[in-house]
């Protein structure tokens, strides 16, 4: 690992930890993504995390609050710009939507059921994003 990569890993660690502390499993390799997608059953929330301000101030807080109200079966995350192979592999499972980060995918049995792109995160109040995701999760989880 070169000095730049090591520096960036240190910078993004708190951004990763924020979701891990909320119960998310990080998928950092293509193999981890493929294994998860091949075996997952039920409702999953996939957060495509990023270093941008809208991830820090909007997406991650909204997701943390929404999942405290509605518990999906699985919580996973990939980090765009950091774990490139894992992110590209995950995006390959829902190619019908353009890549965007941060973004939130709701999957049922590994199939895309709903997608919240960056364009529905950036510029919106955190509470609106939270309520949007919570509503989608309630419907997906049958609550």
TrEMBL record:
Stored InterPro entries: BrxB/BrxA
One Pfam family of this chain: Disulph_isomer
Source domain of life: Bacteria
Family recorded in the similarity comment: Belongs to the bacilliredoxin family.
PANTHER family on file: BACILLIREDOXIN BRXA (PTHR40052:SF2), UPF0403 PROTEIN YQIW-RELATED (PTHR40052)
This protein's name: BrxA/BrxB family bacilliredoxin
Organism name: Lysinibacillus composti
């Amino acid at each position: 690992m070169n000095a730049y990569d090591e520096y960036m890993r240190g910078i993004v660690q708190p951004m990763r930890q924020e979701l891990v502390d909320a119960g998310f499993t990080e998928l950092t390799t293509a193999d981890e993504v493929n294994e998860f997608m091949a075996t997952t059953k039920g409702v999953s929330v996939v957060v495509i995390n990023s270093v941008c301000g809208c991830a820090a101030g909007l997406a991650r807080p909204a997701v943390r609050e929404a999942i405290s109200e509605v518990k999906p079966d699985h919580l996973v995350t990939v980090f765009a710009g950091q774990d490139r192979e894992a992110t590209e592999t995950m995006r390959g499972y829902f190619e019908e939507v353009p890549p965007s980060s941060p973004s939130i995918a709701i999957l049922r049995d590994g199939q895309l059921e709903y997608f919240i792109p960056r364009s529905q995160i950036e510029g919106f109040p955190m509470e609106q994003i939270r309520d949007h995701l919570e509503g989608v999760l309630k419907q997906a989880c049958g609550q």
